[in-house]
Amino acid sequence: MTETPLSDGTGALIRHAAFASHYVAPRHVDVWLPPGYHEHPERRYPVVYLHDGQNLFDPALSNTAIDWGIDEAIAGLMRDTAMPGAIAVGAWCTQLRWAEYMPARPLRAPEAAALHVGQQPISDEYLRFLTAELKPFVDATYRTLPEQPSTFIMGSSMGGLISLYALTEYPAVFGGAACVSTHWPAGGDLLVDQLAARLPAPGQHRLYFDYGTAGLDAAYEPFQLRMDARLRAAGYTEERDWRTLKFPGADHNEAAWRARARLPLAWLLYALALS
Predict the structure, then answer these.
(1) Contact 267, 48 (CB under 8 A)
(2) At a CB cut-off of 8 Å and minimum separation 6, what does 134 contact?
(3) Does this model's pTM top 0.85?
């Protein structure tokens, strides 16, 4: 375990290298502690679990040499809103990223037999890693607020899919999910409908969706509109239970997600509808 104070004053980053699991391959886990964590030992914090952890905090590690800036985003929200901070936990992906992030239960539906999805999904195992191994470790090691209303999950692209799947499979664990540039075409309308059918009852969770209009994101709008309609049919109220935002011209990459990272975090953590 190594702890690195960040030079810009946005807290500290701790690396748990090769975090072992009984369910999935080991991977690095980065834990970001907000400013003031060590100075105020009486404080406890909500936690946001994020996928693709290598892309979150350090541009030298990111796929595109641009990171999400999750530390800057949360620290900025703390500064600008006077809201309490949060702990961010980034689980790195592996070479089995698609298999770990593709929701498995929808593919067990009879009508999914015609889908050609390649690798066999192991997302159920990945979620067991998050909920049965990583979360208990984080709660035992750091000063968290471990209850469901203070526990959130967030990711982009396939990470958006697994975040929504986590909420449908573990609604008693996660109080909200942020699905950024969700890669709906991985399963199309069937995937939308199957995930929507397992949404928990409205009123106890916060959901965030967004999409751009360039690159891979250009194909997402019809599927997102379908999900929005299913949310309304399930009794979810827009701007109370969920938000969907469209970003004209935004591409499918870390630069685009960095530019709007504050928005899903504000919605999950504080129910703030920033624009």
Answers:
(1) no
(2) 19, 21, 29, 49, 89, 91
(3) yes
> Per-residue DSSP letters for 121-151?
P-HHHHHHIIIIIIHHHHHHHS-B--SGGGE
Q: How far is CA 162 from CA 53, 86, 102, 214, 239, in A?
A: 14, 21, 6, 22, 22
**Token pair for 108:** 């067990």
Q: State how far the Cα of 141 lies from the Cα of 136, in Å rounded to an integer.
A: 9
Indicate the SS3 state at residue 4: strand
Instruction: Count Cα atoms within 13 angstroms, Cβ side, for 187.
Output: 30
pLDDT band at 6 (very low <50, low <70, confident <90, very high): low
The answer to whether 76 touches 182, Cβ cutoff 8 Å, is no
Structure tokens at 246: 């469209």
pLDDT tens, position by position, 109-159:
777 666 666 778 999 999 999 999 999 999 999 999 999 999 999 999 999
Three-class SS state of 225 = helix
List the one residue out of 139, 88, 55, 67 whose CA is nearest residue 265: 88
| Cα angle for residues 217, 95, 31 (degrees, 5° grid) | 80
Burial label for 37, CB within 10 Å (0-12, 13-18, 19+), is middle
> 3-state DSSP call for residue 256?
helix
55-64, 102-111, 154-163, 172-181: lowest mean pLDDT where? 102-111
pLDDT of 168-222, one tens digit each?
999 999 999 999 999 999 999 999 999 999 999 999 999 999 999 999 999 999 9
Q: What is the pLDDT of residue 3?
A: 63
